[in-house]
């Protein structure tokens, strides 16, 4: 199976449904953009798919492995979580070298030293920061720190990479580098990428397909070219034109 499938997903807070996805399909090795107004449910969708938030209902088929998200325990979900890389908007750097920041998770997993060195070196080169391995992590710029956070999940060689507004706090120079790195990851890794972004031009440049979420529902989705040039729903048309939608 080469598709990630969601069905009947529902996330509720205090009895109120904030996200409802009847069906969504993500094909292997594509980059998907998730866009929509603030509070529409974009980040909630990623958190439910990364098992960081347990939904009230829903099933997820991860390339042939089907799980019931609402009843998944931490122990049973751990093998699935290890197939997923998640990068939040604000990265956290530990007070150590860049190499140690990227290697930390592998050490917790008991990976041997030779494999750690190889995996960390490869990940740092992929994010174009191989020269920073011995540098203290707290001396990095914001853009460099975000790429180190990305390297920290790439060392696990995940099948899925989820990014939640990864460039929201970056300047245009570092945004361009981050996007170039993501394209390289898509070309060199056997991976599917989902990125939540408020930057519509970024979604247009970077992705193969886009989803528009509004009021907790996927209102429209399709190829990026059609999404931006031939939007079907009035809500997406208004959103792309910069008009206020409620």
TrEMBL record:
Keywords: ATP-binding, Nucleotide-binding, Transport. InterPro entries: AAA+_ATPase, ABC_transporter-like_ATP-bd, ABC_transporter-like_CS, P-loop_NTPase. Pfam families: ABC_tran (PF00005). Residues 4-240 form the ABC transporter domain. One of its GO terms (molecular function) is ATP hydrolysis activity. Gene3D superfamilies: P-loop containing nucleotide triphosphate hydrolases. PANTHER family: ABC TRANSPORTER I FAMILY MEMBER 17. This is ABC transporter-like protein. It comes from Brevibacillus borstelensis AK1.
